Amino acid sequence: MNSRERILGRVRRALADVPADETPLSRDYLREHGRRSAAQTVDLLAENLADYRALVHRCTDGELADLIMRLLAERGSRTVLVPPGLPPYWLKASDVTQVHDRAASTAHELDRVDSVVTGCAVAIAETGTLVLDGSPDQGRRRITLVPDHHICVVRVPGQVVSSVPQGLERLDPARPLTWISGPSATSDIELDRVEGVHGPRTLEVILVGED
């Protein structure tokens, strides 16, 4: 029995005397701040992402591969980490060496990769947050935490919601969720900002609309 099983066992024992038909929690709280169109919601997402110092780009699906190639070239990336389910055409025009995610990859190997490209599960406009859930186009959590440069592709408006409650409705809590609000950063007691402490130093977000 591992630690996870012990903890879940204690939770189940603590809830053993709770009736199964107990009245559910009230969820009548405000689900969205204001009323926005789909386009306005996407604009708010872009604004909040930029406020967190993410670099935001917009393109159509037909322009996506060329944009990714340009961003990798501007970064000087020679290698790019690729989740197993990333659509092949996203990188078909790139001369950068593709490194495929492997369970045997060590942190040192991942640290030598210049960039990583992923999709996302959902993007939350009001908080400027991207959520990854380990789906095939996103890969395992560590591939987006170790490389210094992360390009995240968001389908708009389909993957964009206004609020956290709306985002939670789309997510499976049993999956490994990674919540990203801008590049990794922290500050010391003198409020000197340091980026790249526990994740990528540079986050680039591509908002992809229909052709």
Automatic annotation (TrEMBL):
Domain LUD: 44-208
Gene3D superfamilies: NagB/RpiA/CoA transferase-like
Pfam families: LUD_dom (PF02589)
Segments crossing the lipid bilayer: none
Superkingdom of the organism of origin: Bacteria
SUPFAM superfamilies referenced in this protein's UniProt entry, alphabetically: NagB/RpiA/CoA transferase-like
PANTHER family: LACTATE UTILIZATION PROTEIN C
Protein name listed in UniProt: L-lactate dehydrogenase complex protein LldG
Species for this entry: Streptomyces luteogriseus
